[in-house]
Amino acid sequence: MTDAIHCLLVDDKPLALDILTDYVAKVPFLQLAGSSENPLEALNWVGERRVDLIFLDIQMPQLTGLQFLQALDRRAQVVLTTAYAEYALAGFEHDVIDYLLKPIPFERFYQAAQKAQRRLRPAPADPARPHLFVKTEHRMQRINLAEVLYLEGLQNYVLIHTTTEKVIARQTLNSLEASLPAADFVRVHKSFIVALAHIHTVERSRIFMQTGADNSPVIPVGDTYRSAFYGRL
Hints:
This protein is an alpha/beta fold.
C-alpha cells in the first residue's frame, strides 16, 4: 500500500508491543515500520527509516516519552500510550495527535489512527455541508447542522437535540458520526456526540451545553474519550 502510514511502536513492555502490533495489522492504512522496547534505539530508527507515526509510551527507563518527544524534533507524528492520565496536558503541549490510556481498546486505537490519517493524509477539501438528511419513522428529514446541540445514542436509533426540536433518527450513532463534519462535532461518550459550537462550560467530566434555557443539558464525558476531547478543546 503506497500511501500507508508507517508506524513505529515504542514501549518497554513486550505485552504492550504485542497488543499494538496486532492492532496495527487490523487497520488497512497502517503499516508496521518496527517496534522497540528501547527508546534510544527507536530514536535512531526514526532517522534511518521511514516513520510517519509513533505510538509512544511515557513511563520508560533510559528515556521517558516526554523526553523522547523533545529529542524527536517533529520528524514524525506521535500518539502517546500510557497508563497515567496526568501527562495528558504535557502531551498535547507537544502537539501529539492523541493520548491513549491503557488498557487501550481497539475502538479507541482506531479513532487515534483515523485522526492520524486526517493529519498525515488529508482528503481534498470539500465545501462544508450546512445540513444532512436522517431517516425517521416514515420519511427522510433535513437537519440543519448549525442547530444541532448534541446527538444521543439510544440502542438502534439516535435522538438528535437541536435548538428548535428533537428528532428521532432510525440510525445508529456510529453511522451518523460518519456523516458529521469532524471539525464541528466530537464524540465524548459511547452514547453522545456534541457540537463544539454549543458547548458552554466543561467541569471535570461534565459538559454544559449552551441552549439559552435555564435547564441546560449536561453531557457526561466517558473515560475512553476524555483525553481526545480535551485535546480538541
